[in-house]
Structures are given as C-alpha cells and as structure tokens.
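Lab notebook, bench 4. The sequencing result for the construct came back, and we need a structural model before the next group meeting so we can plan mutations. Quick request posted to the team channel:

Model the 3D structure of this chain.
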Amino acid sequence: MSQYFWGYLNSKKYDFLMQEGFAFYVDETRFFKFDFYIKARTILRNEKYKISTIIKDNNNDDYEEKAIVCGAFIKYLITSHGIENFAKLWKSVVEDENVFSTIYSKSLSTLEKDFYAFLDVQN
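Done. Here's the predicted structure in token form:
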C-alpha cells in the first residue's frame, strides 16, 4: 500500500522504523488485537528498544518487539501530525535526519522524547 501511494522508501537507515513501523501500525486493529501504545510502554522498559537504538542497530533481532515500538511511534506521528506529513516524510526521508525537522518542525530526537512523554515512559 505504501509503495503504491508513496513509492519505495529511499533510506536504509530508517527502513525498519518506517516500513515495519507503518506495516505494524496498519495491522494494529486488523491482526494485532492490542493497543500498540500500551504494549510499547511495557517493551520500552528495556532501553534497547528505544527508537534511536532501533535506528542505530537496524537489525531484525527481537523483531516483533522492535516492530511494535516502531508501530507505536508511527501511530504517534500520524495521530499527532497527520498522515499527510507522514507521506511527505516517506517520500523524502534519506540518511540525514534533518528531514524530520523540515516536515515536523522538530528533530527526530525531540519527536522521540515527545513520544516517550506521551506514553509516560522514562527514557
């Protein structure tokens, strides 16, 4: 669906965050029968699941936990800032995280902190 409407993602760095996060988000109520925010809050007790760590590691270890956290983050971005902004991000994301500031007027690290505050997670 994302590739049909927005094209292929042009970033290996943000591949897992964006592609798996969006795929899990879309399946939240269809396949997964739990709220991603609640599940992510529990998973994020372990710092290895922080968004910045997932981006840095960019591997499939602990795939489902990481994908749920990414799905919750993408859900947060879309719910807070709109699907249109997420579509812009998808179409323009590269290896440089400045694209987040351009689209959301906040750095990725600030968006990550806002997400944790929203979930009431200490990170």
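The two ends are 33 Å apart (CA to CA).
Will bring this to the meeting.
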